[in-house]
Amino acid sequence: MNYEFAKRLIDLVGAVVLVIVFSPVILATAIAIKISSPGPVFADTPKRVGKNGKLFHPFKFRSMILNAHSLLKTDPKLKKLYHQYKKSSYKLFEDPRVTTVGKFIRKHSIDEVPQFINVLKGEMSIVGPRPYYPDELEEQTAKYPQTKKLLREALSVRPGITGYWQVTGRSEVNFDKRIEMDAFYARKKSLLFDLLILLKTPWAMISGKGAV
């Protein structure tokens, strides 16, 4: 059994099992989002870059106010915040758009749970690099031109819900280091490496270390 076939089989079985295991969390989160702020349960997030550069829409629980992503770019009140967002490798450690429930589910990665749908669709894997925004890649590779070759390696595999970067610092790691880690994962991919990452994931979720 080759790696790709085994990984896809594990993704399919694992996604179904984990959706069942997380069903109480999924239900509780959906209710909390609906009663705490106006808007849908799922976030209206922009498309991300998947395997071989193919764009897809990731499913996420809504952790921000309505139209948060478009407001960041168009609302004059958030102009300074948008510049800060781009300057800090597309991360904000203090983001006024995040709701009260959103802060909790982001810290513990609960907002990512609906991405099991993307796994079932074949757009993502349970383990792999985190998917990037298209404009993030354009601007960050211009800022760090040495990462272009590494990016091609990172995009040779399906992005994941959890991965090497996610369990090793997350948002405390800048883009250039993150892309190095993603390329390293793509180069060294194996079922054993995936297993080691999965074993580290529960602590990363519970501790919330590096999450924004």
UniProtKB/TrEMBL annotation:
Residues 7-206 form the Bacterial sugar transferase domain. Keywords: Membrane, Transmembrane, Transmembrane helix. It comes from Candidatus Woesebacteria bacterium RBG_16_42_24. One of its GO terms (molecular function) is phosphotransferase activity, for other substituted phosphate groups. The chain crosses the membrane at residues 12-33. The keyword Transmembrane helix applies. The keyword Transmembrane applies. Belongs to the bacterial sugar transferase family. This is Bacterial sugar transferase domain-containing protein. It holds the Pfam family Bac_transf.
